[in-house]
Write a structure and sequence with these properties.
Number of helices: 6
Distance between the termini: 16 Å
Helix content: 25-40%
Largest sheet: 5 strands, parallel
Order of helices and strands: HEHEHEEEHEEEHEH
């Protein structure tokens, strides 16, 4: 769908509590679309470039809890502390499988270890298509695929002019 239609669809999907997966060529406007939704709704956008992350960047660093003789994880610095946030998981199919595994807990339980997302946080993911033009990992895990509402984003000169 063109960028203007995608904007309305993505916003609606997030308002319904689901997680849209934007699939589109580099430069089509996926990130700008999320930033515009953030501006329209008064939400802060936190962008995670998953291709540059390791599991520890998501789950936080371990520390010893001396009082309970256990290990706990510090919340990562990016982790939302308020509800008026869009958490944008970008380049999800360039992320290592261990990072995508950590993302599963976020998608299913809205948490990473003991760090729970505040109620009202919207999630959105994006990726480039799996074509010879991009170095991406094929996402074949059905359980992972089923966690998203898939939206293909396309664009052309006329729809881009109308959008801007």
């Amino acid at each position: 769908m063109n960028i203007a239609d995608a904007l309305a669809a993505v916003k609606f999907v997030m308002e319904c509590g689901e997680v849209p997966m934007l699939v589109g060529e580099a430069g089509v406007g996926k990130t700008q679309l999320i930033e515009e939704i953030g501006a329209q709704t008064g939400r802060h956008v936190i962008k995670l470039m998953l291709s540059q992350m390791e599991p520890g960047d998501l789950i936080g660093l371990p520390v010893r809890d001396e009082a309970n003789n256990k290990t706990r994880y510090l919340a990562p610095d990016w982790f939302p502390t308020r509800s008026d946030v869009i958490l944008f998981l970008d380049e999800i199919n360039r992320a290592h499988i261990t990072v995508r595994s950590a993302i599963m807990q976020l998608l299913i339980d809205r948490r990473l270890h003991e760090h729970k997302l505040p109620d009202g946080v919207w999630l959105c993911a994006a990726m480039n298509p799996d074509t010879p033009d991009y170095e991406v990992e094929a996402i074949i895990d059905k359980a992972f695929i089923d966690r998203f509402v898939w939206i293909k984003v396309t664009n052309n000169v006329n729809s881009w002019r109308e959008y801007n």
